[in-house]
What we know:
alpha/beta; 41% helix; binds 3-phosphoglyceric acid; 2-dehydro-3-deoxy-phosphogluconate aldolase; EC 4.1.2.14
Amino acid sequence: MNILEVMRVGPVIPVLVIEDLAQAVPLAQALVAGGVRVLEVTLRTSVALAAIRAIAREVPEVIVGVGTLIRPEDFTEARDAGARFGVSPGLTPALIAAARDSDLPLLPGVMTPSEVMTARAAGFHQLKLFPAQPAGGIDLLKALAGPFPDVTFCPTGGITAETAPDYLTLPNVGCVGGSWLTPKTELAAEDWSVITALARQAAALDRRKVTGFTDSSPVTGA
Ligand code: 3PG
């Protein structure tokens, strides 16, 4: 499965910070129950790789990705744990080389036109815009569409249930990422029904206006 196929699965990729390993599987199950099949576990906690391993093994209907992938060695560790794709907040020469050596597809982060150009030159045409909202949000994405018609973005960072629909109307946005599906209070309380409801709402977001994502026509940047 390549990054474009990952982006096509659903309109929202939840970004997860898992502190308690015991929550990994019920959290993934709660998201699946709401119709979310792709998720990203960030490498920001000591249990992140174990959480990826548990989700990959026990919730096989989920396509689990690894986020906050910053070190080249993260590719191998995450791949071995069962991650199916990787997401990085930015892109370095070392990450480009590691991605070339790995069969873990990478969604690299960019924030400026120069970074888009670097990523394209390295062969990446599906990019995470990060941090999307502080960087300029919808206006920035509209401005990037002119010079970079062959790039499809997954904006992430500062997006909410309220703003996600507007992002998803943009032709150069394939999906969005965000942490709003897992509010800290509900996660701490293990209130899985709230997380399932948020997932259901996210999975139902409309992408009909996004060329190529809900029909069989070729997608920009494919
Ligand atoms: C992150 O890096 O935490 C993700 O981009 C999610 O950002 P958000 O918490 O603003 O949705």
